[in-house]
Design a protein that fits this description.
The structure is a single chain. This protein is mainly alpha-helical and 170 residues long. It has one domain: Ferritin, core subunit, four-helix bundle (Ferritin). 72% of the residues lie in helices and 0% in strands. It is built from seven helices and no strands. Helix 2 packs antiparallel against helix 3, helix 2 packs antiparallel against helix 5 and helix 3 packs antiparallel against helix 6. The structure holds fe (ii) ion (2 copies). One fe (ii) ion binds next to helix 3.
Length: 170
């Protein structure tokens, strides 16, 4: 535990720690979402396995950075995966329901936007007070903004349309 770290985080430290616990649960949940999608995606999505695997690694890296900050503030994240979905703010992710390329990316875009809100809130809560957490919030916010842009760009150019039933049988 970093005594000075905690002292600097000041009276708002409890709120900051609560947000970091939530961020950890969120990152571990999205890590699992992306890894599961990478392993199980179907159809043309198999061409994107590496892409989803990369995303999984990135979110796991975020979880590690959040973990590190929690430790500096004198606590550890939960060791119980069952609590991830209770604490992540988005509930059960159910990656098995999103194994087509379009659905997997649409769902991912939702998560990236939640992450942006989360780190923006964390930055607002720590600005001018707790620079250690603030710097981390800014770094993660930047990554999630890039992720949102990536997902939006893919979706905008994804040239797969649902084939109308009539055309499919013609
Ligand atoms: Fe993340
Ligand atoms: Fe992300």
């Amino acid at each position: 535990m970093g005594k000075k770290s905690l002292e600097i985080a000041g009276p708002g430290a409890d709120g900051t720690v609560a947000m970091l616990h939530k961020a950890y649960a969120f990152e571990m949940s999205t890590f699992h979402y992306f890894q599961y999608v990478a392993n199980n995606i179907e159809g043309i999505g198999v061409l994107f396995e590496d892409f989803f695997e990369e995303r999984a690694k990135e979110e796991l890296g975020h979880a590690e950075e959040v973990n590190e900050r929690l430790m500096e503030l004198g606590t550890n994240p939960t060791d119980d995966p069952a609590r991830w979905e209770q604490e992540n703010g988005v509930g059960r992710l159910q990656p098995k329901r999103f194994l087509s390329l379009r659905s997997a990316i649409e769902k991912a875009l939702e998560f990236e936007r939640v992450a942006i809100g989360l780190y923006n809130d964390l930055a607002n809560a720590t600005k001018d007070k707790d620079h250690g957490t603030y710097e981390l919030a800014l770094k993660l916010l930047k990554d999630e903004l890039e992720d949102e842009q990536t997902m939006e760009d893919i979706l905008a150019r994804l040239e797969i349309k649902d084939v109308p039933a009539a055309a499919a049988s013609a």
